[in-house]
């Protein structure tokens, strides 16, 4: 288990306690609690730290957009409709903070308006490092138990939305001091949470999560949560742009282990392919069938019919060296 997840599983999870009305606690993209009438509430929180999740000199607009987007992505992966958000800003003591916050809120508002998310509270403090924490609250029909990480079944098709690796390539180019083409920069700084797709998929899908730490790392979370299943993927079927395919000539696993995609990864029975494709068409979201789930544990990625040797670390982990 990765260092980040051993911290959570060994020290946080065992002391979580039990509360009334908790349907699903720690361990998924969001928690589920009893809501009103035939709805359940869906809650998630994500933090972005300067120098870790975005560049220290990041435009305020992009930071505002992304802080909300990565949180809404967790709601999307549960098939939820977002409603409310809470925002905690920890800002360095610096003369530019007023202008930065104004820009931050412009980016936030553009996405919040499009997705009808109301900011209902938060906190503002000073801190040596710029840090943004967001909590989002949404809802979905009660008692569906769909789109959980633990619900994958042997024989399911494995699907992914959008394109994989674009944000990872943008980051790699930036870190190498090279120009970042605008389409790649867009993928890194302005991810589009797949809310409509997630909501449409809820009746059809078994397991789902959003790809934030790398396709292979996040797939391994679904496989482990579902009792130790395995997956076989055809490398050629993974959606990647031209620049990312060129990048993959260096190492075919680079795009599969880079983070920040914010696409949906989901498994569904083979019998609902037509319904899944209809949801994608209806919500105008490209999706791709990249493989299937099997009983034999582990991930096998085949390229030209040959299994690739996968790296030790399948994706981003906050506490790996
Ligand atoms: P995601 O990548 O979808 O944001 P994470 O991988 O960050 O999810 O977290 C995995 C699970 O652990 C989630 O259910 C999350 O709510 C939970 N979790 C992470 N850190 C903490 C914490 N400090 N306290 C309680 N739960 C936590
Ligand atoms: Mg997630």
Tell me what you see in this structure.
The protein has 321 residues and is of the alpha+beta class. 32% of the residues lie in helices and 27% in strands. The two termini are 14 Å apart. Magnesium ion binds next to strand 8.
Write the layout of secondary structure elements.
Elements: H1 3-12, E1 22-24, E2 31-34, E3 39-49, H2 60-76, E4 81-91, H3 97-115, E5 118-126, E6 131-141, E7 157-161, H4 166-175, H5 182-189, H6 195-201, E8 207-211, H7 215-225, E9 230-234, H8 242-247, H9 254-257, E10 263-268, H10 273-282, E11 287-294, E12 298-303, E13 306-307
Parallel strand pairs: 4-5, 9-12
Antiparallel strand pairs: 1-2, 2-3, 3-6, 4-6, 7-10, 7-11, 8-10, 9-11, 12-13
The structure holds adenosine-5'-diphosphate and magnesium ion.
The site of adenosine-5'-diphosphate (ADP) has 9 residues, from helix 1.
Features:
alpha+beta; 321 residues; seven-stranded mixed β-sheet; binds adenosine-5'-diphosphate; 13 strands
Largest sheet, if any?
7 strands, mixed
pLDDT < 50 stretches = none
The structural class is: alpha+beta
C-alpha termini separation: 14 Å
Q: What strand order characterises the main sheet?
A: 8-10-7-11-9-12-13
Tell me the number of strands: 13
């Amino acid at each position: 288990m990765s260092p980040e997840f051993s911290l959570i599983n060994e020290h946080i999870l065992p002391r979580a306690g039990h509360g009334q009305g908790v349907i699903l606690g720690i361990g998924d993209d969001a928690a589920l609690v009893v809501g009103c009438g035939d709805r359940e509430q869906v809650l998630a929180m994500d933090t972005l730290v300067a120098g870790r999740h975005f560049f220290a000199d990041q435009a305020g607009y992009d930071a505002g957009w992304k802080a909300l987007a990565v949180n809404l992505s967790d709601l999307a992966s549960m098939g939820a409709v977002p409603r409310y958000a809470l925002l905690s800003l920890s800002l360095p003591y610096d003369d530019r903070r007023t202008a930065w916050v104004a820009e931050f809120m412009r980016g936030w508002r553009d996405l919040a308006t499009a997705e009808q998310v109301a900011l209902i509270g938060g906190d503002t403090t000073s801190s040596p490092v710029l840090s943004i924490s967001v909590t989002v609250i949404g809802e979905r029909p009660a008692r569906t138990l769909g789109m959980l990480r633990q619900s994958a079944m042997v024989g399911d098709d494995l699907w992914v939305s959008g394109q994989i690796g674009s944000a990872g390539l943008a980051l790699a180019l930036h870190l190498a001091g090279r120009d970042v083409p605008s389409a790649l920069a867009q993928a890194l700084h302005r991810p589009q949470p797949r809310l409509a797709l997630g909501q449409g998929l809820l009746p059809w899908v078994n397991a789902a999560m959003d790809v934030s730490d790398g396709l292979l790392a996040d797939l391994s979370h679904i496989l482990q949560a579902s009792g130790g299943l395995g997956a076989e993927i055809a490398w050629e079927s993974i959606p990647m742009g031209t620049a990312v395919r060129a990048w993959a000539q260096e190492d075919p696993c680079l795009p599969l282990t880079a983070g920040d995609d914010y696409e949906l990864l989901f498994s569904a029975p083979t019998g609902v392919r037509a319904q899944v494709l209809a949801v994608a068409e209806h919500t105008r979201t490209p999706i791709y069938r990249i493989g299937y789930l099997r009983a034999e544990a582990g991930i096998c990625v085949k390229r030209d019919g040959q299994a690739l040797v996968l790296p030790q670390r399948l994706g981003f982990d906050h506490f790996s060296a």
